[in-house]
């Protein structure tokens, strides 16, 4: 390698430890209010979708291909575009990211899926490496209706091969289970993060948390939803995540003396939610079918 490239490259690599110090940012309360308003709109869409056909959120043009992938055991996902919302909150350093996906789980009932989703003590094994720890406490009667949960989450994003970014979060949350319908039973599980604390180093297990809403801005708010519908002996299962993060529009950061391209944080925002969604769907299918004796 040409010597004139060594110095800036060294600064980029060695300066990685300064990522937290140079790239922290703060949540604007106005962006959080817009996020909460969007959640209410999405709630109504979700309720309407419970009684609609499978993959109703997939465009008509690609519905046939998506249905074939679903029946073959693959997951299907889509990024819900939020141009108007994010244009509005972008100047407040906010971005709402909304993904939804679906999968078919064979030879599984809603009761059996619920058993897997409530097996919090095994989450670090079922959802490895995304979830590295999980503790839960039931908080209501009847049993199994709601839980207080503490999750440890981790993500890794690589820009090329020289610039890996590691993120780790401790999330205090509440999970609520409701069931609808008798003839066509449907399970809805809402998991809402109440407090998200990001590790400064990005290393799971370290107690080096940054202040709430004053961190890297990769994950400021998070709501996820499971919707499962019995389909003969199988289950049609959707997993949906709606997050609030920092805006790429106003992103400015240096590692050492090297400006970090906006493409890096844009890549994080694009890839991590999608990869997490894929993992949650695939791991849940694997665990349910394993318990049903399907190889």
Summarize the entry for a quick read:
The protein has helices at 6-14, 19-23, 29-50, 63-71, 83-89, 110-117, 123-126, 262-291; strands at residues 25-26, 76-79, 95-105, 131-138, 146-159, 163-180, 186-198, 214-215, 221-231, 234-245, 254-255, 258-259. It is of the alpha+beta class.
Looking at this protein, list some descriptive labels.
8-stranded antiparallel beta sheet; 34% strand; 12 strands; disordered N terminus; alpha+beta; 295 residues; Alpha-D-Glucose-1,6-Bisphosphate, Chain A, domain 4; two-stranded antiparallel ribbon
Question: Would you write up a description of this structure?
Answer:
By secondary structure, the chain is α+β, with helices and mostly antiparallel strands. It has a single domain (21-291), classed as Alpha-D-Glucose-1,6-Bisphosphate, Chain A, domain 4. It is 32% helix and 34% strand. It contains 8 helices and 12 strands. Strands 2-3-10-9-7-6-5-4 form an 8-stranded antiparallel β-sheet, sandwiched between helices. It is globular. It starts with 5 loop residues before the first helix and ends with a helix. Residues 1-21 have low confidence and may be disordered.
